[in-house]
Amino acid sequence: MEKQYETVIGLEVHVELATKTKIFCGCSTAFGGAPNTHTCPVCTGMPGSLPVLNKQVLEYAVAVGLATNCDITRYCKFDRKNYFYPDNPQNYQISQLYLPICRNGKVEIETERGKKYVGIHEIHMEEDAGKLVHDEWNDCSLVDYNRSGVPLIEIVSEPDMRSAEEVIAYLEKLRMTIQYLGASDCKLQEGSMRADVNLSIREAGAAEFGTRTEMKNLNSFKAIARAIEGERERQIDLLESGEKVIQETRRWDDNKGESYAMRSKEDAQDYRYFPDPDLVPIEVDEAFLDRIRERQPEFREEKMARYKEEFDIPEYDIDIITGSKRMADLFEATVALGAQPKKVSNWLMVETLRLLKENDMEPEDIRFSPEHLAALIAMADKKEINSSVAKEVFEEIFKSDVDPAKYVEEKGLKTVNDEGALRKTVEEVIANNPQSVQDYKSGKEKAIGFLVGQTMKAMKGKADPGMINKMLKELL
Predict the structure, then answer these.
(1) What are the Asn/Gln amidotransferase domain coordinates in residue numbering (predicted)?
(2) Cβ neighbours of residue 354 under 8 Å, at least 6 residues apart?
């Protein structure tokens, strides 16, 4: 009988916080920027420079901790994690080992088998390292310290996940929670959310964990799922052929669909942690916690329940709209301006999603304003523009947030409501298409569609198809 194996997975998720400045200095955290322009003596590790904690980092870390059901450490401090690396200017990283800000949390995920909790061991604050840029042409490596000192939280889960499906559900839940808090945009492709996967396998029913490996370089949910499947198979093959799994850090190559060893990692690796002498301990009091609790937003689950009660829109729409904080905000703001919820939802679900897909964009990248969407819906309701013109105008709103009223005026797209002019055009179309008129009279309902189309063409698309239809039926 073939052995059955169980996969055991824990994650270390690094999230770049959405502060304007770095964790211990006033330099900009903006993504991009010429190399080494967002730097100062503190974040380049100059001797004698002193770090000062950015209060916003603490606020975001506590907010994420509360949202993930963690205990908040009332007395916490920073430690130095010592290691030499070219992009680590001080030769140590300021992190938290002994007293991390958040501990013992959990988040609920939905899986095929139903609801499940994934434990959070801890969340700690730390600074990011710089970035090495490898120059193939000159055969050298250059260092860019712009990212050095960008604030991170590291969310360390318990080894509670058993499949790629559970890992993705957990990551999506974290990403959604953090985006709703506004603590980070969590863009995997820009590295503002990065996950390292610790994975081991054991025979089904065994109590002991197997030897784990850590996989790095995972910058999309698809890559994470593929890496988990690949590493699971690799470890099973090793055990089946009588070999041992070695504890090591591996790098996943998504193009080749395989991983390779980077360095072996003994548990005894000594970072010589000690409390950072330059930073004072942090005391979190009840008043501070209350302020953060009051500021917590309405999260997705609460939103979904409220939408069901307040707005008459399908559950499928609710699920998609609340799946993105940006989309939910846009929906609510447009409805608040007087637009009908179902109509707003239709524009978001159909046209917005189509354009996002075509432009390879995320909902968080939407730039148009609720005012312009509400104005467009109002113009369509008043029949000032017909549905095909509305779609054309919406594409412009999506692209560059144009004012729909101005755009329609400038481009002369208003629906022609002059009955006389319309009747004249309809009469001409009837006269020019005797065959279709004959078809309609002999019971072919479809023929009227052709005549409507010809009239729209003659009116350059600026008429109301319903009105044309009615007039054709009268005249025929």
Answers:
(1) 329-476
(2) none
Residue 187's pLDDT is what?
Answer: 86
Crossing angle of helices 55-67/286-295, nearest 10°? 70
- Is the domain of 386 the same as that of 270? no
In the structure, what pLDDT confidence band is assigned to residue 21 with cuts at 50, 70 and 90? very high
H, E, C per residue of 225-248:
HHHHHHHHHHHHHHHHCCCCCCCE
What CA–CA distance (Å, rounded) separates 451 from 268?
A: 81
**Residues whose CB is less than 8 angstroms from the CB of residue 84 and which lie 6 or more positions away in sequence, other chains included:** 91
User: Which of 367, 386, 411 corresponds to the end of one domain?
Assistant: 411
210/213 Cα distance (integer angstroms) = 10
Q: What is the b/e burial string over 452-461, where b = at least 16 CB atoms within 10 angstroms of the residue's CB?
A: bebbbebbee
| 435, 359: one domain | no
Total residue length of the chain = 476
The one-letter amino acid code at 112 reads: E
Q: What's the pTM value of the predicted model, to 2 decimals?
A: 0.83
What is the distance between the alpha carbons of residues 77 and 101, in angstroms, rounded to a whole number?
8
What do you get for the CA distance between the two ends of the chain, in Å? Answer: 79
229 and 162 belong to one structural domain: yes
For 286-305, write each residue's pLDDT tens digit: 999 999 999 999 999 999 99
**Domain co-membership, 109 together with 239:** yes
- Total H helices, total E strands in the chain: 16, 16
Mean predicted lDDT score pLDDT of the chain: 88
Is 292 a member of any domain?
no
Tokens of 358: 């075509």
Residue 171 lies in a domain: yes
Q: Please tell me the distance from the alpha carbon of residue 370 to that of residue 376, in angstroms, as a whole number.
A: 10
With beta carbons less than 8 A apart as the criterion, state whether 65 and 102 touch: yes
Q: Which of 411, 429, 456 is the last residue of a domain?
A: 411
Look at residues 171, 198, 66 and name the one whose alpha carbon lies nearest to residue 123.
66
| CA separation for the pair 224, 278 (Å, rounded) | 38
Q: How far is CA 6 from CA 120, 204, 259, 338, 457, in A?
A: 21, 5, 20, 54, 64
Report whether pLDDT(352) > 80.
Answer: yes
- pLDDT exceeds 60 at position 285: yes
Nearest Cα neighbor of 23 from 345, 402, 282 is 282
For 235-244, 324-333, 441-450, which range has the lowest pLDDT when averaged over its residues? 441-450
The dihedrals phi and psi of 7, each to the nearest 5 degrees, come to -95, 135
